[in-house]
Design a protein that fits this description.
- By secondary structure, the protein is of the alpha+beta class.
- It is globular and about 45 Å long.
- The chain starts with a strand and ends in a 13-residue tail after the last helix.
- It has a five-stranded antiparallel β-sheet with strand order 1-3-4-5-2, with helices on one face.
- A hairpin with an 8-residue loop joins strand 4 and strand 5.
- It contains two helices and five strands.
- The chain has one domain: Thiol Ester Dehydrase, Chain A (Roll).
- About 15% of the residues lie in helices and about 30% in strands.
Amino acid sequence: MARAHVDIELRWGDQDAYGHVNNVAYARYLEEARVRVFFTGSARERTGMEGHFRGDGPDGPKMLVASQQIEFLGVLEYSEHPITVELWIGKLGGSSLELHYEVVDGAVPERRVVARAITTIVIADGETLRPARLSPEGRASAEPWTDEPLTLRRG
């Protein structure tokens, strides 16, 4: 599969009163993975997507979250081992990207997915905040990272 891999350290404060990573922390992990793939280019793989979906100035294009679904599959305990967020594009639209993720527990030797998620991102004009078509360069950079979409248990 064409996936970008982002390793993220857990923080002590990510835990809740039950002693496991709180569900709210997962939204931050997904956000961090998006930033590293689309803004800083600091995933394990160089995707070539950085810079194509946002502008450096205030009037440049913006990536806006239109919707997000997270499906929790297992409990994640705090650990010194980072999690890995695997990210790929499940669907490319005219002005949107459907990002798909699997969150993998790094504290166990076998691959254990603790959550799956889908985020719909809309590329918007920086001044009007209205949807803007993906540029040909942006679409070309995203196509190699497009793969089979997830099917979550509840839609």
